[in-house]
Sequence to fold (360 residues):
Amino acid sequence: MTAASPRTAAAAPDTRPGVPIRIEGLTRRYGSVVALDGLDLDIAGGEFLALLGPSGCGKTTALRAIAGFDRPDAGRVLLGDRDVTGVPANKRDAGMVFQAYSLFPNLTVAENVAFGLRVRRRDRAEQRTRAAELLELVGLADRGDRYPHQLSGGQQQRVALARALAVAPKVLLLDEPLSALDAQVRVQLREEIRRIQLELGITTVFVTHDQAEALSVADRVGVMRAGRLEQVAGPDELYERPATAFVAEFVGTMNRLPATLSAGAVELLGVRRPVAGSAPAGAVEALVRPEALVVTAGGPAHVVTRTFSGAVTRLLVALPDGTEVRADLASADSQHLTAGTAVSVVPAERPVLVVPAEPA
Fold:
């Protein structure tokens, strides 16, 4: 991430305007399925929090509970000091943007943006002024008189965002709003959403299954599993110091390697490295990121495939015991490491995360 990115340029959440959100002991069951299992979460006013996790982990259920579209079986949702657990969705001052754009095809872009104000019976001059302001904010000032079918998917999602913001909500809730877009548009629009969020200072919860989206724009990321939070932390901490093996392997790519503990260090790939954090008892395995592996020509392993990705090239390397590992190297320094090349692989000289060994 570059120094010019929206996240690194952001002020601390507690210095921004915005309403804090508190979730206390939130539980939601659908028959025998537990979607939320006593979820606790504090979101600072003005914070951009991403909820990340696999399908079925409860992230969308949590978002819908905040929005008021889903009533929990137990627990509370507070916006600021107000308990809104039993408050209808239309009275929570929350703007929501869905994966589907859900624009009205018979209304112009400006009329779509102003729809919430129209429902609230604001005068037409206010509707026109607010719609114009928000279309300017999302970069569609010259598209107000067009209809949704005349816009691209990315432009339609910008209109949906403007519509959610038109009624000046206290919080903004985004439910995988970029998943239907192509890769380049997704990157552009996620940066635009972050820019707008910082400009308005609005508390935002962003649900996604895409770790790149979560890590690139959020102040903090909450990784969910089976209705619970495994870890809530800033992107850097989440990636570099995962609290659990699930987080370590879900966020980014991770190699799982045979290892042994000895005299306070871990032995793997023929070398000793210090242990990151506390060491579990019993048999262990080491978790090592691709960029934390050092690959040099000559040795008992060999390169299986080489995947060029611009500045970084990923090597798939087969170790002597048949284990395959992924290693990321600078492309300029790895041109000679082609498929079939004999190599040696060792972890970089840094602490290594170890976890209990999985059963065979």
